[in-house]
Amino acid sequence: MPPVAGAAASRLALPTFEPGWVWLVGAGPGDPGLLTLHALHALAQADIVVYDALVDETVLTFANPRARLEYAGKRGGKPSPRQRDISAKLVELAGQGLRVLRLKGGDPFVFGRGGEEALALVDAGIPFRIIPGVTAGIGGLGYAGIPVTHRDVNHAVTFVTGHMAGGAVPENLDWPSIAKGSPVIVLYMALSHLGAITDILMANGRDPNEPMALVRNASLKDQQVLETTLARAVADVAAADFKAPAIIVIGDVVRLRASLDWLGALEGRILQSDPLGNRAVKDAG
Ligand code: SAH
Prior knowledge:
Blueprint: H1 6-11, E1 22-26, H2 37-45, E2 48-51, H3 57-60, E3 68-71, H4 83-95, E4 100-104, H5 114-124, E5 128-131, H6 136-142, E6 158-161, H7 175-181, E7 185-188, H8 194-203, E8 211-216, E9 224-229, H9 233-240, E10 246-250, H10 257-260, H11 262-266, H12 278-284
Parallel strand pairs: 1-4, 1-5, 2-3, 2-4, 6-7
Antiparallel strand pairs: 7-10, 8-9, 8-10
């Protein structure tokens, strides 16, 4: 029985995965409960699943048992297949008349190169569908009890990659403007350049005591959260031996975690009622 079975699938009008199509699907940050119904339905119908390093194994257990599972990420220190090769492979598999599910961590269009792969499909005349997923920079932070926006704190958020294709800190970003204009900054792939990034933000006026959180393996059973500040981050990360993959957030929304750490509460953490100190301000006024 497919995971989204008969009646539910037809009531939801979930689409049929036709042979020769490629579906670019977001798997979410890890917890299979965060798969969309479309993603689950796609997994049940696919002939082949081409998946990335950040897709959790449990998610793959929802694939059709007859589906071939093919890994397209970095393994055992070997370099990852080139993007061009992956795109060519998708075109080739679809050309063979297979239902090709390209499964990516989080959302395929958020620092996931989904756009590039879709463009290659367009060039080759392969029909495709995009199935968005829960991105780490929103849902992953939600699992740490950190909202990316909160009315009393920020009216904007900036998503930044800490890594360029060549591995360097992104220099074509306008860091001074980000530092000045974005009350909350969410960093993907930034752990290896953490020092350079925190330095450039502080050099451009961010408070060294500004709160910051790093979430490793967000939404998975071994999720770890490190709360720190811009100035202390590098030392705290080294002391905790904190490793990738991690999603990083800088800004006052991190203070809300004292109240909103719902996973911590399940393990007995006592949640505070006024993390931003609003009541005192209002009482004084
Ligand atoms: N398309 C993905 C992002 C791919 S870039 C998405 O939408 O989430 C890879 C980066 O995403 C990692 O370096 C890390 O910063 C972040 N990331 C993805 N999944 C994560 C997880 N479960 N926990 C923490 N960070 C994660």
